[in-house]
Amino acid sequence: MSNFNEDLAEIQDLNLTYLLVAQRLLKADYTMALMRLKIDDAMGSQLLSLSTRQLGQLARNNQFLFRLCLEDSEQVSQLVDNERDQGMGGIHASLLMATVTPITSRPAAEAR
């Protein structure tokens, strides 16, 4: 049971770290942060409006609040198994990540 509690604590720590970094990115360069976080304007505004208490409350979840941008194992292979990489890994990763569809807010009718 102790491993479960440790895993849960680590997930919650990661969630809080993610939320704090997301807020910091949004405050520094809102438009760039929306692209990097792959969120829409409504989600960006919502994250910025959260207090520290609310961030902590949201982070205390047993699920990750973020998702991996790489959608399949082929994308991972493309990033790590590129034999021709000559210092271009960062650019290649950026291009690959840019193709991932951003998470958008659901319309009000779907949210019910």
Provide the β-strand percentage band.
Answer: under 5%
**Which architecture of the largest domain would the CATH scheme give at its second level?**
Orthogonal Bundle
In whole angstroms, how far apart are the ends? Answer: 36 Å
Contiguous helical run count: 7
Structure description:
- The chain has 112 residues and is an all-alpha fold.
- It folds into 2 domains: 1-66, Flagellar transcriptional activator fold, CATH 1.10.4000; 68-104, no CATH class.
- It contains 7 helices and no strands.
- It has helices at 2-28, 30-37, 41-49, 52-59, 73-80, 89-98, 108-111.
- α1 runs antiparallel to α4 (52-59).
- The longest helix is centred in the N-terminal third of the chain and has 27 residues, at 2-28.
- The radius of gyration is 17 Å and the shape is flat.
- Mean pLDDT is 82; it is low at 106-112.
- It holds the Pfam family FlhD.
- InterPro entries: Flagellar_FlhD, FlhD_sf.
- This is Flagellar transcriptional regulator FlhD.
Give a short summary of the structure:
The protein has 7 helices and no strands. With 112 residues, it is mainly alpha-helical. GO terms for molecular function: DNA binding.
SSE diagram, text form:
Blueprint: H1 2-28, H2 30-37, H3 41-49, H4 52-59, H5 73-80, H6 89-98, H7 108-111
Task: Give the key terms.
112 residues; mainly alpha; Flagellar transcriptional activator fold; 2 domains; 7 helices; 66% helix; flat; disordered C terminus
